Amino acid sequence: MAVMNGESDARWYPVYTHARAEKKAYEALKAKGIEAYLPLQRKLKQWSDRKKWVEEPLISSYLFVNISPQHMAEVLMTKGIARFLYFSGKVATMPDRQIKELKLLLATDAELEVTEEDLQPGEKVTIKAGPLKGINGEIIAHRSQKKLLLRLESMGQSLIVSMPPSYINRL
After folding, report:
1. pLDDT, position 3
2. At a CB cut-off of 8 Å and minimum separation 6, what does 84 contact?
3. Are 138 and 131 in contact (CB under 8 A)?
4. Domains defined for the chain, CATH in brackets
């Protein structure tokens, strides 16, 4: 199959994978020439006899593909892929900007937490300092600490980042 990125009508789509199949599905998509992105986060795991750093998906059972709509069937025929996500009755898409911001976040040492809680929108802000400078989000109170919330609405997921209040400006 021809490489699908670079096509004029290609967009980012979040896809749902089978449980614990994110990495295998990602590799299978790449083998087909499909541009995919699997956000990974390093975590220290504790076993009874040792500790080890491992890379785990930031968002369980999700990855992103950059394809044209005519390639959706090929994605669905990939081992490990369960389905596309729907938002308001349509296949969900992700703006390029959100994928770039997610990549930027993961390139920093910021402490990240993903939650499926339906967090209420708060005050809109932009980060003015630190490694996340220039990213927009919403502020919420979470576990009695101020944190920056970047809502990925088309996925129904929320990304929470610890951030000193002095690092943000109200919009």
Report:
1. 46
2. 13, 14, 15, 16, 72, 75, 76, 91, 92
3. no
4. 11-94 (3.30.70.940), 99-170 (2.30.30)
> Is 70 exceeded by the pLDDT of residue 9?
yes
Integer Cα distance of 6 and 55 in angstroms: 28
Length of the chain: 171
- How far lies 106's CA from each of 49, 53, 171, in Å? 29, 16, 24
b (16+ CB within 10 A) / e for 52-81: eeeeebbbebbbbbbbeeebeebbeebebb
What φ, ψ does residue 66 adopt, rounded to 5°? -110, 95
Report the candidate in 162, 163, 157 with the shortest Cα–Cα distance to residue 57.
Answer: 157
pTM of the model: 0.76
| Residue appearing with tokens 């919009």 | 171
Interval 116-139 mean pLDDT: 76
